[in-house]
């Protein structure tokens, strides 16, 4: 006899990820933004801290990074949508040595591009470079636009 479980009678349903138009070549407008629409950009920094990294120095870098939400200013106002950072805590075993992550969201690619030249960002970058490679072994950076595959 099988143990009782809510999964015993589970019947998988196949649900399409996107809706297709009649000719099956056009993705639904719900997934395809208008060509002139401003699209948000997510900037991800993946860090592999050295095993014997100075935790105080790392904390200083991450505190300064999280402050970028308030210290990054363009045309007299903030332009960074959000900043989050933290230590890797996945149990999957697939972290590839990554120990920390930073996620920064922008309303547009133009804001992300400006960020690359922002003095506040430059200061955090200098802080990171100062403790490499003794405390931060490697840094990987990727950007993506949500919903664009």
UniProtKB/TrEMBL annotation:
Pfam families: Dabb
PROSITE patterns: S_R_A_B_BARREL
Signal peptide: none
Ranges of residues in domain Stress-response A/B barrel: 41-144
Cross-referenced SUPFAM superfamilies: Dimeric alpha+beta barrel (SSF54909)
Name listed for the protein in its UniProt record: Stress responsive A/B barrel domain-containing protein
Native organism: Neohortaea acidophila
């Amino acid at each position: 006899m099988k143990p009782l479980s809510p999964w015993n009678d589970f019947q998988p349903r196949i649900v399409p990820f996107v809706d297709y138009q009649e000719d099956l070549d056009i993705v639904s407008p719900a997934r395809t933004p208008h060509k002139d629409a401003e699209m948000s950009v997510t900037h991800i920094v993946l860090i592999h801290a050295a095993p014997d990294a100075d935790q105080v120095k790392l904390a200083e870098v991450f505190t300064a990074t999280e402050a970028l939400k308030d210290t990054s200013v363009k045309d007299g106002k903030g332009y960074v949508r959000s900043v989050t950072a933290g230590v890797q805590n996945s149990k999957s075993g697939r972290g590839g040595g990554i120990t920390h992550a930073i996620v920064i969201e922008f309303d547009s690619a133009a804001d992300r591009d400006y960020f690359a030249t922002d003095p506040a960002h430059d200061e955090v970058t200098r802080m990171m470079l100062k403790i490499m490679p003794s405390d931060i072994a490697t840094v990987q950076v990727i950007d993506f636009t949500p919903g664009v595959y």
